[in-house]
Amino acid sequence: MRNGITGATRLAAVIGSPVRHSLSPALHNAVFEATGLDWRFVAFDVPAGRAGEAIAAMKVLGIGGYAVTMPHKADAARAVDEIDLAARALGSVNTIVLRADGSTFGASTDGQGLIESVLHSGHSLSGARVVVLGAGGAARSIIDALGRAGVADIAIVNRTRDAAERAVELCAVARVGTPGDVEGASLLVNATSVGMGHDDLPIEPALLRHDLVVADIVYHPLDTALLRAAAAAGATTIDGLGMLVHQAVLQQQLWTGQRPDPAVMRAAAEAELAARSR
Ligand code: ATR
């Protein structure tokens, strides 16, 4: 028995292109290793347009779960046998489970991952007023999940107004907002890519306050200019590994039926990011 892999070992994988730099193998394998769960996680580079074949392969090979990333999220939503509410609303699937009856179930865990990272930090969302910066794929998943989490108001602030107007349709309490809406909000989420690899800020730092929770989805770098400004204003900060880790927790729970420890995944992600920056 080499590497502990036996004839009974179950497999999960990320499908996407490119997938070489995915953090998912590090996150999921860390939990399998720590708990002794007889699963392994690998990455399959699947060319655009071939997600349907990869999903059909789950059934013949008995692959227990997929994490789905670019460019397959919309194709996967069409190719699975059944999808959850979030995946239906978004037309996008980031998680596939091969069920015991041989059918495939697609879910979208990104938005709920952001919600759980906020709840995990000890903050309530019920009745909250929220500002979401961005209206792309990640922002849409967050807006959809916030709607189901019982928030009172979602102001969507985006560079391109058309995209904000389309995102409003996801949720009854969402509206097109302005940066000034941060004044009445208790949670600010940066769901744009601004802050990735440079010092740009997605909003005026003067709008940040000590009684605000500021969550960023950017995790490269982890200490974005936004989070540094938020910390300087005394705000509570949630970095981009919050959403990444908690959406992976939900994925693994769907595949194995067991809830993994977010702290194990976070430590693995931090170690992987640190190794890459050396
Ligand atoms: P993802 O899947 O990560 O959400 P996306 O769908 O391309 O990626 O969305 C990127 C988001 O970041 C969008 O809201 C985009 O704004 P636009 O709709 O105006 O394109 C936002 N974004 C990206 N670069 C930006 C920049 N330099 N300034 C402001 N917003 C930016």
In short:
By secondary structure, the protein is an alpha/beta fold. It has ten helices and twelve strands. It has a six-stranded mixed beta sheet with strand order 2-1-3-5-6-4, with helices on both faces. It has a six-stranded parallel beta sheet with strand order 9-8-7-10-11-12, with helices on both faces.
What are the main properties of this structure?
278 residues; alpha/beta; Rossmann fold; 6-stranded mixed beta sheet; 6-stranded parallel beta sheet; 10 helices; binds 2'-monophosphoadenosine-5'-diphosphate
Description:
With 278 residues, the protein is an alpha/beta fold. The protein folds into 2 domains: 133 residues, Leucine Dehydrogenase, chain A, domain 1 (Rossmann fold), CATH 3.40.50; 128 residues, NAD(P)-binding Rossmann-like Domain (Rossmann fold). 38% of the residues lie in helices and 19% in strands. The protein contains 10 helices and 12 strands. A 6-stranded mixed sheet has the order 2-1-3-5-6-4, with helices on both faces. Strands 9-8-7-10-11-12 form a 6-stranded parallel sheet, with helices on both faces. α1 packs across α10 and α5 packs across α6. The two termini are 34 Å apart. The mean pLDDT is 96. Bound molecules: 2'-monophosphoadenosine-5'-diphosphate. The site of 2'-monophosphoadenosine-5'-diphosphate has 13 residues, from α6.
